[in-house]
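Sequence only, no structure available. Ideas?
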Amino acid sequence: METSFKPHPRNSGFTTIELVITLILIGILAITVLPRFFRGGFAEISLREQLLSRLHLVQTQAMNHYQDCFFLQINSDNYFSGELATNGDCLKTIDVLEEVSFSNELTVTQGIIRFDGMGRVRLGLSEPRLCSQFPCIISVQGEETHTIVIESEGYIHAPL
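Reply:
I predicted one. Tokens follow.
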């Protein structure tokens, strides 16, 4: 005994309204979400966020110890920060400091940035300083350019 099952015509597929709504939702997702996955500049954003985090750390260390001995040095392919030694002197040799390397394809503003005990940037020209005037701007360039801005009273932020 063989029975054939024929679906009722009303339940056999999607209605036109359902298809149109689904296509509209897929279109909205394609316009808003997909470009975020395929855009360039991930390396620049990542390095900018790392530098931003390290700047906040160095600034906090300077404020906690109320000394201007803490610094961040950015070179062409790495950056590192300095800390106080047990005798109170600043460590300036790269072999005892934590060094973070990044891609040679990225170009970053180079130099040394130092904070005072109030968390403000120390301006000066005695060393290769990053900041000689305010606002202090550190740029990270690759496929795109991203910046970090340090205001005169120590506010550090990354504009969108």
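The chain has a mean pLDDT of 81.
Hope that gets you unstuck.
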